[in-house]
Amino acid sequence: MNETFLRRNLQPIVIWALLLTVPFWLPLFGGYTALAGRVLVFALAAMSFNMLLGFTGIMSFGHAAYFGLGAYGCGLFLKFVYASTPLAMLAGTLLGGIAGTLFGLLLVRRRGVYFAMVTIAFGQVCFYIAYKWDDLTGGYDGLRGFARAPIDLGLTKIDIQNNGTALYFFILLVFGVAAAAQGFVLRSPFGRTMLAIRENERRARFLGIPIEKHIWLSFSISCFFTALAGSLYALLNNFADPQGLTYVMSGNIVMITIMGGMRVFWGPLIGAVLFVALQDYVSSAWPTTWMGVVGVVFVSVVLFFPRGLMGMLQKRAGT
Amino acid sequence: MMQLVMFNVTNGLIVGAFYVLMALGLSLIINLSNVVNFAHGNFLAIGGYLAFTLTPYVGFWGALLISPLLTAIFGYFIEQLLIRHVYARNHIYSLLLTFGLGFILQDVCRVIWGPSPLPLDIPELLSLPITPDLFFITWYRVFMVGVVVVAVSGLFAFLRYTRVGIRIRAGTLDLDTVSALGVNVAALRSYNFAVGSFLAGLAGVLAAGQIGLNPNMGDDLIMPSFIAIIVGGVGSLTGTLLGGLLIGVAAALTTVFYPAGAEAVIYVIMAIVLLLRPRGLLGEEGMLS
Amino acid sequence: MSQIIGIGHTGRRKVLQATAAIGGLQLASPFIIKARGETPVKIGMVDPITGSLSALAVSEVEGAKWTVEQMNKKGGILGRPVELLIEDSANDTGTGVQKTHKLIERDNVDAIIGDVNSGIAYAMMGVTAEKKVFHVVPGGHTDPITGVDCKWNTFRTCNTTAMDTAAITGELVKRFGKKWFFITPDYAYGQTLQNNFVKKLKALGGEFQGDMLPIATSDFSATLIKAKAYKPDVLLNNMGGSAQINCMKQFVQFGMGKEMQLGGALFEIESVRSVPKEAQAGWWVMEWYWNQPNVPEVKKFVDAISPAIGGKMPTARHWMAYVSLHAVRLAAEAAKSLDAVKMAHALGDLELPPEVSLMPGKIRYRAGDHQLMSDIYIGQMHNAGPGGPDDLYKIEATVTGEEAAGPVESTGCKMSFPA
Hints:
The structure holds three protein chains of three kinds. Chain A has a two-stranded antiparallel sheet. By secondary structure, chain A is an all-alpha fold. Chain A is 74% helix and 1% strand. The model of chain A has no long low-confidence stretch (mean pLDDT 87). Chain A has one domain: ABC transporter involved in vitamin B12 uptake, BtuC. Chain B has one domain. In chain B, helix 4 packs antiparallel against helix 7. By secondary structure, chain B is an all-alpha fold. By secondary structure, chain C is α/β, with parallel strands linked by helices. In chain C, 45% of the residues lie in helices and 16% in strands. Chain C contains 14 helices and twelve strands. Chain C has a seven-stranded mixed β-sheet, sandwiched between helices. In chain C, strands 2-1-3-4-5 form a five-stranded parallel β-sheet, sandwiched between helices. Chain C has two domains: 207 residues, Rossmann fold (3-Layer(aba) Sandwich), CATH 3.40.50; 125 residues, Response regulator (Rossmann fold, 3-Layer(aba) Sandwich), CATH 3.40.50.2300. Chains in contact: A-B, A-C, B-C. At the A-C interface, helix 4, helix 14 and helix 15 of A face helix 1, strand 2, helix 3, helix 4 and helix 6 of C.
């Protein structure tokens, strides 16, 4: 009994054990805590994106829009409304999530390449608004002049502004809650329907499943979670900028998902570790040509490792 | 004021013609191969840079001919080497592949030609205004439109009258049948990719003469092409043509009244089209869905 | 051609090896340094080496590398060797912030230099202030860095937009007239720049019109038609990078050079080199120039650095990096410490020696706002002259930094040090 429990949950147990001890072992490998925060933020964004790609079979190439809106929503709330970190995150999540839900209405009937192109274009629209509306957003220079507010727990305050480790654990907490919520959605009857749509849209339609409504809902949920990740990104940087809304960021989110393995729940987390570590290292080693090196990695992953690291490991374990 | 409006309509057509050239290449590849080529803007840059290198030897006119051809050959090899492996897979892979390819090509340009902007010298005659009254229309702009008209007519004639062209068109409509009839679809897609790259290379030479060269030059130009295709409707080359001209003129007219909104207007047009006619102006319903 | 394509294969292997090596290398490196006995002074530099500002960033990086090399030959900082760690911000704020964290938290740098992009420099200030690390901004011009948002630990070497505009407005009005037309990029830097120009121009009784355009504009014909109809005395081209170049090119093509003067705040040598001959014209501010016959230290500097940067003449960007790095050295030596607070106190109002400043006047980082009070040149751009391909500019007037910047109170900076 105990043994089967262990075997079944080995993956999450190892992952959580490693995540909880990051501040102790990461410096040994030349890492730094802010890097771990970045991994978690990108992992959450990619896992949210993967609800759509990996579990509904729908591809968006514009998720940076909702990520970026989450960041702006969070930053604007901290700057202009009230210095409360949880409320600001709520604001960011709502802004990105609602925008995604509305865009989703225009998208659900489109498929394939056309769907992807329209999501890219919507992403650019959001970039454009953030860039133009400089009285509010700071325009090209980005939104600045806000800072993470300490988390007030009544009895004590957690200083996430000046204590990097506290910030990491705060992000980890949010990540954990969000991942649990995603797991819950995917295990629910709705999650099963998403899989049915992924496997065979036509058959699902014959079974009487309202496909458009489900895709829309799945898109919307994915956008809310992505926006939550975006609001964490704003907290991590104390900054939000329009570059974060462009298709380059969207491409990175997609890449993280593929690198880790899009059919595996934890795949994007592994992808985020690989991607952030690679980017961080390569860009220091070859400051002038690192983009090309990253491009080579992208191309190689697509051609040679399309199932991603976790996909490959699972396949090997399965055979 | 009238002069300004007149000018901007003309200018919009010129800019639109340029978008058309770029978007047609992109559109060709999407229609036949279902691949959105993110690196299209980088093929454009390669075309421009090749022209820069060739000009001292063969002059501007020679470069205008040779550089797009070289870009086409380059495109052909890239298709053979990389892109053909992902046709059978989820679209996300072709997007990612060309996205990564874009990074590589950009750095290739940066390494070979350097990070600083470079000018492409054009013949003296072309840089002069056509008349003193129309000082703002240089011969180069007229020339650009001429080249685009020739290229677009050539493309449509190619698609209508040559064997490969007819097959490309047929493949766009129904690839399975074309394949069943014994056409080598793989080769067809390679030729088609080369044609698309040729158009990108040509656009690159023309753009370089007007705005100069830098490794990122494709980035600014690719988004209008995307929008031209979405507005015109995926699957229709005529739609792409119309879409490109429409957003070109709209952006130019906006410049007269509200210069800062020149970029915004093309997104507004896209949103309106998507709301009222979700498949685009001339898009086929069912295409690519 | 096949070689280009071949990158896909060889490159992949390299990357795999590289990623495999990360752990090992970084585990090992601290021990190597300890074994050497003298810990180097580490200076981290973050600049947009890739992206649209790369030409400027590459000059700064060249300048910085050479400066550190020279410094190490002359005993380094406080007798310790200097190690320069260069990171690419990719012209992206998130990346810039991440790299700053990396340099401070992992590499434990003693000072941070960067960024060319004002927005990124600004975001970096958030990190360096939080971590209490000495920070020099060599080349980001936006005003608040040493204005309303100044920080005790941040010094800036290049001028503010307010200084550049103040320096040239008077000259242009005096020489050509006070009816102006602006072509300005529509973002914070452009807006501040134009507002500063307008303020100065109005004070002199001038009038103006202008267009705000997207940063990446490549076709200026519509705006130039407006400008021609307005018949201004001076056309101010505030655009940057390739947009500025294209604007100049079209201005010349339309034959407008005969009808009005051309000018603006900055037209950097990196850009001037890549415009066609006809567009190498107009009146501009130069923040530093290699040809200053009256300052012997400049010639010495130019002769020494030129071979190291491919035989070209150093630009203002090389100078900015040079001065910024020496500022770190001077601050550390005056404070006899690498403690950021002590260094910041020591550098304020410290007069830079001429072999560092490379300017005719006596210049210093002003204690009140940490802005370098450098001399500002006003002059004319011209085609390459007898001095070689980089002989492109003639200094016609010099304005002192204090004159252009105005009193500290006018910048809005309230300097406060940590208790």
